[in-house]
Amino acid sequence: MDGLKLYILFIGDITMPSKAHMTPGKDEGIPVNFPAYCYLIDHPKGKVLVDCGMHNGGPAHVREEDIVTNRLAEIGVQPDDIKYVVLTHLHIDHAAYMTSFPNATFVVRKEELRSAWWPETCERGYVYDDYKDARYFRYIQPKDDEVYDLFYDGSVLLIDTKGHTRGHQSVVLDLKELGKTVLVGDAAAFRENMEEKILPGYCSDSWAGMQTLERLKVMEEEGYFLIFGHDIPQWKELKLSPEFYE
Question: I need a surface site. Which of 159, 191, 221, 239 has the fewest CB within 10 A?
């Protein structure tokens, strides 16, 4: 689509003592360090932020310049410039700064909101204090299996990629030069999750998670460019803001 741009915002890195946290059953005890991102979609009808970053501490290393609002400021964007905030899911490294965007409309799957506010005992990764003050923000809640057309022009589609969480969604963009592009999120945090059919770390629904991995693989085979949520080799290949894709 003419005029559509994608900025990849580097918002810190995460160190784990065992890679198996991300690839269950493989590479147990091998330390790993991987990137984390948010994304800015600059659409002619408004700016869209995908995910809200993470706080510094524990396994997460977030410098001052890595805070999502500071990454946006680097490219001349202020919180009130954001029309929509799309959350792939509300885990600790994706939803930390929701309250920095009180005037945006948040687009989150209904099941994901349920998980975030009332997680089952087996559902880990949510930090209630990060978003407790966002309870009465404005939300659009796509249905579980809905393909949600954000601007009703086919340029930004939100697709159901549940498995990692009950309400995980990915973003499909129609960029003029790069072509069909998928912001995968943590549906496949690493490429090897998809390639080797390894469930993506914590998984609230293993069967759905495997179906998602298989669907993502078919999308890539059909020519879609996949941007994985935390892939290490891809980290060196992506153009990070202030550069952009179009």
Answer: 221
Q: Supply the pLDDT for residue 246.
A: 96
pLDDT at 124: 85
- Half-sphere exposure of residue 110, counting CA atoms within 13 Å on the CB side? 7
More confident residue, 144 or 6: 6
Distance, in Å, from the CA atom of 231 to the CA atom of 246, rounded to the nearest integer, reads 21
In the chain, what is the greatest distance between 2 CA atoms, to the nearest angstrom? 47
**Which stretches of 107-168 are DSSP H helices?**
110-117, 128-131
Q: Which residues pair with 106 in a beta bridge?
A: 85, 139
Residue 236 gets which letter from DSSP? Answer: T
Alpha helix stretches (DSSP H) within 26-109: 68-74
> What secondary structure letter does DSSP report for 145?
T
Residue 212 is inside which H or E element, if any? helix 206-221
Residues 6+ apart with CB under 8 A from 114: 166, 167
Amino acid letter for position 4: L
In the prediction, which pLDDT does 120 show? 86
Q: Is the dihedral of CA 104, 107, 110, 116 positive or negative?
A: negative
Q: Which of 90, 147, 122, 135 minimizes the C-alpha distance to 203? A: 122
